[in-house]
Amino acid sequence: MIPGMIGTRHLPGIEAAFARIIRFRWPILAFYLCLVPGALVVALRIPSDTAIERMMLASHPDVVATREFQRIFPERPRALLLVESLDPYSRETVAAVQALEAAVGRIPGVSAYSALTVLERMRPGATSRPGVADQLRQFVSGTPFFRDQALVAPKTLGVVVALDLKGPAQRDSALDAIDRAIADVRSTEVGKAGIGTVRRVGRPWLDSWLERETAEATLRYFPVFGVFVVVLTLSLYRSVRALVAILGSLGVAVLLGIALGGLAGFGFTLVSSLVPLTLMITASANLVYLHSRFVDQPPDVELDRHRTAALANKLVAVSVSMFAAAVGFAALSVSDIVPIRQLGIWASAGIAIEWIVCFTLYPALQTILRTPTRRHRAVAGRWMIRAAVVLPRWSYRWRWMLLPLALLLAAAGLVALVGVPGLLAPMTMSADALDYADPSLPVVRDTRAFVKTILGRTSVSVWISLPDGALLKPETIGALDGLSRAIRRQPAVGSVVGLPTILRLRRYASGLGDNLPSDSAGLARVTSDLEQLLMTEPALSAWVDLAELNSTYFSVTSRAGDTEGIGGLQRAVRSAWDEAARAAPSLAGATYKVVGVGVLESHISADLVPTLTHSFGVTFGIIFVTFVLVFRSGPARLIAMVPSLVAILVMFLVMRLSGIQLNVATILIATTVLGATENDQVHFFYHFQEARAGATTEQALGHAIRVAGHAIVFATVINAGGFLALILSSLPPMRQFGILTALAFSLALVADFTALLSALWVVFRERPQDGSVSPS
User: Fold this and answer.
1) Residue-wise DSSP of 47-107
2) How many degrees, rounded to 5, is the angle at CA 380 between CA 377 and CA 386?
3) If residue 20 lies in a helix (H) or strand (E), which one and from where to where?
4) Are the beta carbons of 206 and 443 closer than 8 angstroms?
5) To bridge 1 with a disulfide, which of 73, 501, 691, 722 should be the other Cys (CB 3.0-4.6 Å)?
6) Phi then psi for 720, rounded to 5 degrees?
7) Which residues, at least 6 apart from 563, have a Cβ–Cβ distance to it below 8 Å?
8) Residue 272 Cα distances to 258, 332, 606, angstroms
9) C-beta separation of 692 from 326 below 8 A
10) Sign of the C-alpha dihedral, residues 599, 604, 607, 609?
11) pTM above 0.85, yes or no
12) For position 697, what pLDDT does the model report?
């Protein structure tokens, strides 16, 4: 094939179709201009959502159970203020904690309680009498309740904050008011004398920060990537008109893709916030492919004829590459993790819209703006003409070194991912919200310190169901008390709070000790009192299903420093239940379920591996079938995927060596990279086969490099540079995702011009024409 000649491998009538698109360029432009305002309104109204219970499918059994549990026992978001002091029971510190509790409790929609609240409730007037500090010290020392509730700890008094608010806006307003209350109290004489440090612990602050960062992510990345695209386009094509045509098409494609997600009811989550950036990157890369072919106008072809021929020549390659990228994201829909599933569907649908824009609006703008070709204005990339001569022979000379090295690195990456039985464990997973936040945040530092020294980070609810009316029977109360103590004795458990705990606390405050009676008569008296108290005491009624009197629950938290997580708690509850059931026949007709946020987080972590393997398998299979249909050459079907697979597996090796875990963001890298980097191989092989008929391997390689090489290089720069913009994120998983994805794109580019060329020489068993390169 003559260098620079446009191939004819497109269906008859395609050029005529593009000629009609160009003829109707003004109506096409007007149509898109009509869509833009509405799409902008929809895009700006897309909400942010980081709620853990909405990260799993609503039909999942544990989600159903947790929502049913929360319907009966509605839980308000809770946080904890830890007031540190050298002597937490000093008169000054107790007075400061009283002032802080009162200030926080005055905030609308917020309630607060501490050990002082319990003391006042059980012994009215105690907190207003002299010597309250000594009374508090004595009161909390005789029962584990206050330690289990984190209301007391060494050098610490805790204040529990409950939020009864609707929506993130009210929550954020309340958290700001709490911060102001803390500052106000600390500025007083009482606060200065009694408070050392106030630590904030709990999900409300963490969720607020995550939602704010998620909402601001797009606004932060877009300007950076926009500047990057402008500089790159101008340096590559050296034309303002080309820049306007590309940016106009890019902006419309991305906006329509984002708006489509809004119409589908999607929201921005920790991972779906990547959709706008992903659409911008994929659209930019494909517009570079199209425009690079357009500027390469042969000297003997008239501009209008060249315009339609260039579009027709790139139709199959761009369509297949965008299909590969869309498939890569669509494969994520197999995940049971809702944000990942939404990301896949959203990005895939957005890429489909990009395809339409690339072949309608872009040709229209290109014609309206009269963008120049290489014949009218010099463009960057002439060095690729020299590379088209040098690289084929160079890769032939070093083929037996380059190909084995690439395969060896890929094998090492596979071992790093899956491990070696008995020698190396597989890569670990993480779904802990703390791992998604900036480690320098005070709430993150305080929470990590809390779970290491006071209570563990894993908390679940043990929902106990009994026959109707059985709850208010003496033998049931005794059995529940035995079960509570059996769970507390388990090594994995740090605290257990439930109905028996509150009943024991009331007896303790009355001077009867921190135990329920074990005899039938004593339990009957406790049960009789309970029936009356349930009507008047919210602290008790919150633990009972008052409608049916057939269920209650325990709140169980792992011990401080625990590493077993949800698995350890589930085993502990199972063991304690078996022990209690043997000792108490009244539990024979009872059942239990372990529910709550801790359970959902464990499922998300467990679903990360299936998400990786299933989505990657689906992507690989569909792309391979696509290559079978597109590429006539049998060996090309497998070889085309070598650079992507090498890049992905080496990226896992880098993750293992650097200690980066798989999480809800990094789990997406393999599928994302496979779907996106296949674009390069599609364009390369399309032009390789374009010249293959009647030409040698060396000539076909040279043609593919000359025609597609600089577009591959600059598309990779766009892909890598775009995702690298994520280093600006305050979310560690997003920074890791950006760095690793950029690395994988760069590795794929290197493999494109080393391992891929070497593999083709090996498969086709040819050598350069003049024989000057000796086989090695």
Assistant:
1) PB---GGGSB-TTSHHHHHHHHHHHHS----EEEEEEE-SSTTSHHHHHHHHHHHHHHHTS
2) 115
3) helix 14-23
4) yes
5) 691
6) -65, -45
7) none
8) 11, 12, 20
9) no
10) negative
11) no
12) 87
Domain range summary for the chain, segments of one domain joined by +: 14-53+238-429+602-764, 77-208, 467-589
Query: What is 253-264 written as a DSSP string?
Result: HHHHHHHHHHHT
Evaluate whether 180 touches 104 at the Cβ level (below 8 Å).
no
Measure Cα distances from 640 to 357, 576, 643, 644, 687 in Å.
Answer: 27, 57, 7, 8, 13
More confidently predicted of 5 and 141:
141
Residue 381's pLDDT band (cuts 50, 70, 90): low
Instruction: Read off the tokens for 474.
Output: 């003496």
Taking CB atoms within 8 Å and a gap of at least 24, the contacts of 26-30 are 26/364, 26/368, 28/360, 28/361, 28/364, 29/361, 29/364, 29/365, 29/368
CB distance 62 to 600 below 8 Å: yes
The H helix count followed by the E strand count for the chain is 30, 11
Architecture of domain 14-53+238-429+602-764: Up-down Bundle (1.20)
The CB density around residue 71, as the number of other CB atoms within 10 Å, is 8
- Which H or E run includes 161? strand 156-163
What's the rounded Cα separation, in Å, for the pair 736 and 400?
Answer: 34
Which pLDDT band, with edges at 50, 70 and 90, does 2 fall under? very low
Whats the size of the chain, residue-wise? 776
Rounded-to-integer distance, Cα 685 and Cα 697, Å: 12
Place of tokens 């605290």: 495
Among 295, 297, 287, which residue's Cα sits nearest to residue 246? 287
Of 686, 580, 706, nearest to 633 (Cα)?
686
Alpha helices, DSSP H only, in 298-418? 303-330, 338-358, 361-368, 383-397, 399-418
Q: Which two tokens stand for residue 497?
A: 């709070």
Query: CA-to-CA distance for 650 and 747, rounded, in angstroms?
Result: 8
Q: What angle do helix axes 383-397 and 399-418 make, rounded to 10 degrees?
A: 90
Q: CA–CA distance from 709 to each of 592, 682, 688, 719 (Å)?
A: 63, 12, 11, 15
Tokens representing 407?
């395969």
Distance set, CA 396 to CA 350, 378, 773 (Å): 40, 32, 8
Q: What whole-number distance in Å separates Cα of residue 25 and Cα of residue 19?
A: 10
Compute the distance between CA of residue 493 and CA of residue 474 in angstroms, rounded to an integer.
Answer: 26
Closest CA to 388 of 660, 620, 706, 625: 706
User: 108 vs 24, 174, 176, 200, 562, CA distance in Å?
Assistant: 60, 8, 12, 19, 36
Q: DSSP characters for 405-460?
A: HHHHHHHHHHHHHH-BTTTBPPPPEE--GGGGS-TTSHHHHHHHHHHHHTS-S-EE
CA dist 565 and 556 (Å) reads 12
* Encoded tokens for 207: 């969720």
pLDDT tens-digit readout, 408-452: 999 999 898 888 888 888 887 665 667 777 778 888 888 888 877
d(CA 482, CA 462): 14
Query: Strand pairing partners for 268?
Result: 48
Which residue carries 């607020």 as its tokens?
208
pLDDT above 60 (res 377): no
Q: What is the DSSP string of 332-347?
A: GGG-SBHHHHHHHHHH
Q: β-strand 591-595 against 197-201: which pairing, if any?
A: unpaired
64-68: long-range contacts, CB 8 A cutoff, minimum separation 24: 65/463, 65/593, 65/595, 66/595, 66/596, 66/597, 66/599, 66/600
Amino acid at 392: P
CB distance 519 to 431 below 8 Å = no
Question: Per the structure block, which two tokens stand in for 165?
Answer: 């608010």
| Burial profile 82-99: b = 16 or more Cβ within 10 angstroms, e = fewer | bbbbeebbeebbbbbbbb
